[in-house]
Here is the input.
Amino acid sequence: MEKVITVIILSFVFSITINAQQQYVKLVNLSKYKNIQGVIFQGESQKTWSNKKMQGMFSPELNDLIKAEDIIIDICSDTKKAHYVCSKIGEFKFYKRQYIGRLNSSKEKILEIQFLNFKNKKAREFFNDWDKNYIIASGDLFYDNSFLIYINLNTGEIE
Here is the structure.
């Protein structure tokens, strides 16, 4: 009985997702970047979770996503600015994105991007509802196949 309860608790902790109402989720395809797929969580769906460092929310538009992808490419092409995310740039086409718009204390636009690896079959199955739910989980499968970055759209920096 104790093992069953432990398994149930671990399963729950491992696979917590935040359900966003469908009207607040927008699927996008960035054809400029080899058909990168992403989903924008907008409006009320963003209020479901919070980041204490941020002071507000904004609903990202397609031009915000394009600007963020350009910032990543620019930073990764300059070895002096290189960031840990750059080591994964060759694999970017396999990562789908989840976008959330936040405002910092200076009211600068911060685009939170969660990258989900769809090259790995187990991860692909785990992330099967990525386009409807913002994925929050723990465990090796999640950590080995996802990463999160914050891009300041005002300064052009990865935070």
